[in-house]
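#struct-help
A.M.: can someone run this one for me? Single chain, 144 residues.
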Amino acid sequence: MIALLLYQNLSMKFELKNILKERIVLNTLAALIITIIISSLIDIKFTRGVLIGGILALINYYWLDASWRNILEIASSNATGPAMPIGRYILRYLTIGTIVYLMHFYDVASILGILIGLCMIAAGILIEAFLLLIKTFTTKEEGI
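D.P.: on it. C-alpha coordinates below:
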Protein backbone atom coordinates (compact mmCIF):
# COMPACT_ATOMS: atom_id res chain seq x y z
CA MET A 1 0.00 0.00 0.00
CA ILE A 2 2.79 2.41 0.89
CA ALA A 3 4.61 1.45 -2.29
CA LEU A 4 1.47 2.22 -4.31
CA LEU A 5 1.13 5.68 -2.77
CA LEU A 6 4.83 6.32 -3.31
CA TYR A 7 4.59 5.22 -6.94
CA GLN A 8 1.55 7.45 -7.57
CA ASN A 9 3.34 10.38 -5.96
CA LEU A 10 6.40 9.75 -8.11
CA SER A 11 4.36 9.46 -11.28
CA MET A 12 2.69 12.82 -10.56
CA LYS A 13 6.10 14.43 -10.31
CA PHE A 14 7.46 12.53 -13.33
CA GLU A 15 8.19 15.64 -15.40
CA LEU A 16 9.94 17.39 -12.52
CA LYS A 17 11.91 14.23 -11.78
CA ASN A 18 13.08 13.96 -15.40
CA ILE A 19 14.22 17.58 -15.42
CA LEU A 20 16.01 17.11 -12.11
CA LYS A 21 17.58 13.86 -13.33
CA GLU A 22 18.84 15.56 -16.49
CA ARG A 23 20.30 18.42 -14.47
CA ILE A 24 22.03 16.02 -12.08
CA VAL A 25 23.56 14.14 -15.02
CA LEU A 26 24.69 17.41 -16.64
CA ASN A 27 26.23 18.59 -13.36
CA THR A 28 27.94 15.23 -12.99
CA LEU A 29 29.36 15.48 -16.50
CA ALA A 30 30.55 19.03 -15.81
CA ALA A 31 32.28 17.95 -12.59
CA LEU A 32 33.77 14.95 -14.39
CA ILE A 33 35.13 17.08 -17.24
CA ILE A 34 36.66 19.59 -14.84
CA THR A 35 38.23 16.78 -12.81
CA ILE A 36 39.61 15.11 -15.94
CA ILE A 37 41.14 18.38 -17.15
CA ILE A 38 42.78 18.98 -13.78
CA SER A 39 43.90 15.37 -13.36
CA SER A 40 45.41 15.27 -16.85
CA LEU A 41 48.19 17.42 -15.43
CA ILE A 42 49.01 14.72 -12.87
CA ASP A 43 49.16 11.26 -14.45
CA ILE A 44 47.50 9.50 -17.38
CA LYS A 45 46.58 6.44 -15.28
CA PHE A 46 44.89 8.69 -12.75
CA THR A 47 43.01 10.50 -15.52
CA ARG A 48 41.85 7.20 -17.01
CA GLY A 49 40.72 6.14 -13.55
CA VAL A 50 38.65 9.29 -13.10
CA LEU A 51 37.08 8.80 -16.53
CA ILE A 52 36.31 5.11 -15.94
CA GLY A 53 34.95 5.82 -12.46
CA GLY A 54 32.75 8.63 -13.78
CA ILE A 55 31.34 6.42 -16.53
CA LEU A 56 30.70 3.64 -14.00
CA ALA A 57 28.95 6.13 -11.70
CA LEU A 58 26.60 7.26 -14.47
CA ILE A 59 25.88 3.65 -15.50
CA ASN A 60 25.20 2.78 -11.87
CA TYR A 61 22.88 5.79 -11.52
CA TYR A 62 20.77 4.80 -14.52
CA TRP A 63 20.78 1.13 -13.52
CA LEU A 64 19.61 2.00 -10.00
CA ASP A 65 16.87 4.27 -11.37
CA ALA A 66 15.60 1.52 -13.68
CA SER A 67 15.68 -1.05 -10.84
CA TRP A 68 13.66 1.15 -8.49
CA ARG A 69 11.12 1.98 -11.18
CA ASN A 70 10.68 -1.73 -11.85
CA ILE A 71 10.25 -2.55 -8.15
CA LEU A 72 7.70 0.25 -7.67
CA GLU A 73 5.74 -0.77 -10.78
CA ILE A 74 5.57 -4.37 -9.58
CA ALA A 75 4.48 -3.25 -6.11
CA SER A 76 1.79 -0.92 -7.45
CA SER A 77 0.30 -3.41 -9.90
CA ASN A 78 0.22 -6.31 -7.42
CA ALA A 79 1.96 -8.41 -10.06
CA THR A 80 4.66 -10.87 -9.29
CA GLY A 81 8.11 -9.81 -10.27
CA PRO A 82 11.45 -11.48 -10.06
CA ALA A 83 11.79 -13.89 -7.18
CA MET A 84 14.71 -11.94 -5.81
CA PRO A 85 14.79 -8.25 -6.74
CA ILE A 86 17.78 -7.98 -4.45
CA GLY A 87 19.65 -10.16 -6.94
CA ARG A 88 19.83 -7.32 -9.45
CA TYR A 89 21.02 -5.02 -6.68
CA ILE A 90 23.86 -7.39 -5.84
CA LEU A 91 24.59 -8.00 -9.53
CA ARG A 92 25.03 -4.27 -10.06
CA TYR A 93 27.68 -4.02 -7.38
CA LEU A 94 29.39 -7.23 -8.47
CA THR A 95 29.60 -5.89 -12.02
CA ILE A 96 31.08 -2.58 -10.92
CA GLY A 97 33.46 -4.32 -8.52
CA THR A 98 34.61 -6.71 -11.25
CA ILE A 99 35.28 -3.85 -13.66
CA VAL A 100 37.23 -1.94 -11.01
CA TYR A 101 39.23 -5.07 -10.14
CA LEU A 102 40.06 -5.76 -13.80
CA MET A 103 41.14 -2.15 -14.35
CA HIS A 104 43.48 -2.44 -11.37
CA PHE A 105 44.68 -5.97 -12.20
CA TYR A 106 45.66 -5.05 -15.76
CA ASP A 107 47.12 -1.75 -14.53
CA VAL A 108 44.87 0.30 -16.80
CA ALA A 109 43.82 2.90 -14.27
CA SER A 110 44.55 4.16 -10.79
CA ILE A 111 42.26 2.92 -8.02
CA LEU A 112 42.23 6.38 -6.45
CA GLY A 113 41.19 7.88 -9.78
CA ILE A 114 38.39 5.32 -10.16
CA LEU A 115 37.13 6.06 -6.64
CA ILE A 116 37.16 9.79 -7.33
CA GLY A 117 35.32 9.18 -10.59
CA LEU A 118 32.72 7.07 -8.78
CA CYS A 119 32.09 10.05 -6.48
CA MET A 120 31.24 12.33 -9.41
CA ILE A 121 27.52 11.53 -9.21
CA ALA A 122 27.58 12.75 -5.61
CA ALA A 123 29.35 15.90 -6.80
CA GLY A 124 26.62 16.39 -9.41
CA ILE A 125 23.91 16.00 -6.78
CA LEU A 126 25.66 18.46 -4.45
CA ILE A 127 26.05 21.00 -7.26
CA GLU A 128 22.34 20.71 -8.05
CA ALA A 129 21.40 21.05 -4.37
CA PHE A 130 23.60 24.13 -4.06
CA LEU A 131 22.05 25.70 -7.18
CA LEU A 132 18.54 25.01 -5.89
CA LEU A 133 19.46 26.50 -2.52
CA ILE A 134 20.73 29.67 -4.18
CA LYS A 135 17.60 29.83 -6.32
CA THR A 136 15.41 29.42 -3.23
CA PHE A 137 17.10 32.27 -1.38
CA THR A 138 17.18 34.61 -4.36
CA THR A 139 13.56 34.19 -5.50
CA LYS A 140 10.95 36.16 -3.66
CA GLU A 141 7.69 34.44 -2.84
CA GLU A 142 4.60 36.45 -3.65
CA GLY A 143 1.67 36.73 -1.30
CA ILE A 144 3.53 36.11 1.94
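A.M.: thanks! The chain has one domain: 24-135.
D.P.: also worth noting: The helical segments are 2-12, 14-39, 44-77, 85-105, 111-118, 120-138.
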